[in-house]
Amino acid sequence: MRLINTTTLQVVEFLSIDVPPYAILSHTWGNEEVTFRDMMLRFTEDHAVEASTRIEQKAGFIKIQKSCEIAKRDEFKYIWNDTCCIDKESSAELSEAINSMYSHYGGSGVCYAYLVDVSLSASLWKSRWFTRGWTLQELLAPSNVVFYDKDWLKIGTRTSLAKLVSVITMIPTSVLTGNRDLKSYSIAQRMSWAAERRTTRAEDIAYCLMGIFGVGMPTLYGEGAIRAFIRLQEEIIKYNDDGTIFACVGNLNTEP
């Protein structure tokens, strides 16, 4: 697992048995995100100055910088960010990362949910963050989620905002506050929480739900949303005898 050092902003790799306590960032992707390759070039002697200048001008760099500042303030030496801690040029690594995503968020000490389109808690329901497929598990998996607005001002936590977030997401407050286990809800109920969410890549509408149902499967980009969703259902059936799965047809929303 790769993590960003919150002091140096350097990406460091750890074996699974040696992963230190870490914070994690949840956000919606925008233009000019900083990639793993960017971060590697930033600390490569032959390219460091040129790469640093170019990378720091990217719009996504401020998210790395600000999240590291907050994590450091919260006494975390490391933070995980999906834009630059995964080498997405490697299909094998990307598939492994997608299958591990839920556990990455679940293993974090805190998740910072950055809402780039929100300035006040009153406008929380307007945020695009609540419409994306991947952010569903990022809301549910961590033990602690803290929301920040576009200026990196703290809005509140998943617990303190549970009633409002429940209205927005249709997820019961008992799940958001941690008073009821996610697995105590039927497959159909959990699936319904994703019904109005969207992903950019067609297959991700299925892949983003793997962790919520405790299953894993190879990612096969190009197979299409329907085939990916059928494979997801097949994996769920292997480990569950919940008949409500047959009521799940899925909206398969894949618009950007």
Automatic annotation (TrEMBL):
<protein>
    <submittedName>
        <fullName>HET-domain-containing protein</fullName>
    </submittedName>
</protein>
<dbReference type="InterPro" id="IPR010730">
    <property type="entry name" value="HET"/>
</dbReference>
<feature type="domain" description="Heterokaryon incompatibility">
    <location>
        <begin position="22"/>
        <end position="116"/>
    </location>
</feature>
<dbReference type="Pfam" id="PF06985">
    <property type="entry name" value="HET"/>
</dbReference>
